Amino acid sequence: MRVFDGVSSSNYSRTRPMYPPEFYYWLFQQVSKPNVAWDCACGTGQVALDLAAYFERVEASDISESQIHAASPHRRIHYQVSPAENTPYEDQSFDLVCVAQALHWFDLEVFWRELKRVLKPGGMFVCMGYNRLSIGPQEDKAINEHVLPLLAPYWPPESRLLWNQYDDVEFPVELISVPKFELTCHWTVTQVQDLMLSWSSSQAFIAEQGKSGEEALLQSMEPLQAAWQTPNQKQDITLPFFVKAGRFSG
After folding, report:
1. How much is the pTM?
2. Average pLDDT of the segment spanning 172-180
């Protein structure tokens, strides 16, 4: 189960990419009554803010107090600290339940029961995520040869579900066909480094190694800086993006 402290919550809120606008437009079209949505494991509210453009009210919850405290306020969004598997929401509360980049952290057997309880009949469940990143041949080589080997022992086993795009997850809903969406960013090398520092493996490495671990991790990113095509300039970053969506039958 993921928990971020105050430092990583601040880093998380400024480094995570924004999901494609086309995705939200498609999602809005799948919901017959866009009244109330739940952004489950909302982090600092990135998805909740986008959902608030389409839904009358958004409930946003996360198990981390520091994430909720760092969340962006909005008049349509109500934030609260709560685990995904045991929430204070009433039965059949939501037209949409959304989980972004977090399903792999849940106790899925318990969460599925909670999902069925709070989702309205005919309501939509959607989860999405992305894994790793691609910049260019030299930049990718620098990350693959210097950063990832250092972090390899520190990836939690749950991350493999994300890397496999949740294909190994047995969903209780009937999945529907989802269009392909592209997730791209136009970032500086510093923004890419900040994203990598926010990875769960990076946080685990730094937690174990302390200040020396943070220094070692930053040193492993120096080849990426050297490979960056135009210093201090932004480049296109591609993050493989996937979506699973469906409804309970009956």
Report:
1. 0.90
2. 97
Question: For position 14, what pLDDT does the model report?
Answer: 62
Residue 65 sits in which domain range? 6-247
Residue 37 maps to a domain: yes
Rounded distance between C-alpha atoms, residue 229 and residue 220, angstroms: 18
Unique residue bearing structure tokens 């296109």: 236
Residue 99, pLDDT above cutoff 90? yes
Q: What does the pLDDT look like over 53-87, one tens digit per residue?
A: 999 999 999 999 999 999 999 999 999 999 999 99
* Residue 194 forms part of a structural domain: yes
For the chain, give the mean pLDDT. Answer: 92
What's the total number of domains in the chain? 1
DSSP-derived secondary structure for the chain: -----HHHHHHHHHHSPPPPHHHHHHHHHH-S--SEEEEET-TTTHHHHHHTTT-SEEEEEES-HHHHHTSPP-TTEEEEE--TTS--PPTT-EEEEEEES-GGGS-HHHHHHHHHHHEEEEEEEEEEEE-S-B--HHHHHHIIIIIHHHHGGGS-TTHHHHHTTTTT---SSEE--------EEEE-HHHHHHHHHHSHHHHHHHHHHTHHHHHHHHHHTHHHHHH-SSTT--EEEE--EEEEEEE---
In a domain, 178, yes or no: yes
CA 49 to chain centre: 14
CATH number at residue 88: 3.40.50.150
Distance between CA atoms of 122 and 246, rounded to whole angstroms?
A: 9
Q: Has residue 49 been placed in a domain?
A: yes
